[in-house]
Amino acid sequence: MSTTPEHDRKIAVMSFASVYPHYVNKVEKKGRTKAELHQVIEWLTGFSDTELQELIEKKVSFQEFFEKANLTPNASLIKGVICGYRIEEIETPLTKQVRYLDKLVDELAKGKKMEKILRAE
To answer: How buried is 42 (Cβ within 10 angstroms: 0-12 exposed, 13-18 middle, 19+ buried)?
Structure first.
């Protein structure tokens, strides 16, 4: 599945800090915690709480966020549809990485067990 270059550009320049509060709100509204959200983000990107906070304060773009990330080798196990796109069919690496994060946040909000979210089983 191909995304448009315009779509990919919008994602690349969007600030992680502008989306982060929506992630927090989404998971907390469904009874999950900010700590669980940070655990999921750390699993995907390798960022500690301190590093994550620094990136939020610097208002880095998603492009810079994922350039600095040390993506888990198990990221390719994240599959399914998010925002109308089948993740495993997205061709643009950055867009795919952002959708990985969106999918993990969605799974957390839907009450999925942490072991499954972190692809430990």
So the answer is: middle
Complete domains list, the chain, with CATH: 5-117 (1.10.8.290)
Measure the CA angle with vertex 80, ends 75 and 82; round to 5°.
100
pLDDT, tens digit, for every residue of 20-73?
999 999 999 999 999 999 999 999 999 999 999 999 999 999 999 999 999 999
Q: In sequence order, which residues have a C-beta less than 8 Å from that of residue 71 and are 6 or more positions away?
A: 44, 45, 46, 97
Report pTM: 0.93
Q: What residue type is 94 in one-letter code?
A: L
Residue 110 Ramachandran class (φ > 0 left, ψ -120 to 50 alpha, else beta): alpha
pLDDT tens digits, 91-116: 999 999 999 999 999 999 999 999 99
